[in-house]
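Below is a filled-in request sheet from our internal design queue. Each sheet records the structural input a requester submitted and the sequence that came back. We keep these sheets so that new team members can see what a complete request looks like end to end.

REQUESTER: design group, bay 2
PRIORITY: normal
MODE: inverse folding
CHAIN LENGTH: 105
BACKBONE (tokenized):
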């Protein structure tokens, strides 16, 4: 996994084409990059992130930010109640209980 300026990139190798290709994961926009060597793919990733940020600045748009820390989760009312009861019994807020449970998963 590549990381740059708060963004993550996933890379795969295409053995038929003999190249690495990747995608920036932290945006709704499609941002891809490619290279033939590890150095090339790392450079292409950083350049793609910078190009994306420049493009957003030129258009006066806010770039997608990598993860705010907020997660909207939909569940049945029954499950919501069960999770709430478990949180209360453990002496934690619902958010803290869910965070701790996910962290240990």
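RETURNED SEQUENCE:
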């Amino acid at each position: 996994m590549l990381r740059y300026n708060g963004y993550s990139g996933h890379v795969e190798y295409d053995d038929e084409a003999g190249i690495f290709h990747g995608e920036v994961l932290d945006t709704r926009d499609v941002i891809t990059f490619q290279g033939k060597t590890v150095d090339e793919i790392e450079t292409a990733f950083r350049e793609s992130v910078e190009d994306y940020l420049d493009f957003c600045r030129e258009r006066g748009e806010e770039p997608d930010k990598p993860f705010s820390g907020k997660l909207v989760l939909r569940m049945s009312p029954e499950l919501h109640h069960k999770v709430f009861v478990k949180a209360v019994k453990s002496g934690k807020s619902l958010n803290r209980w869910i965070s701790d449970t996910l962290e240990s998963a």
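SHEET NOTES:
- The longest helix spans residues 38-59.
- The first strand starts at residue 2 and ends at 4.
FILED BY: M.R.
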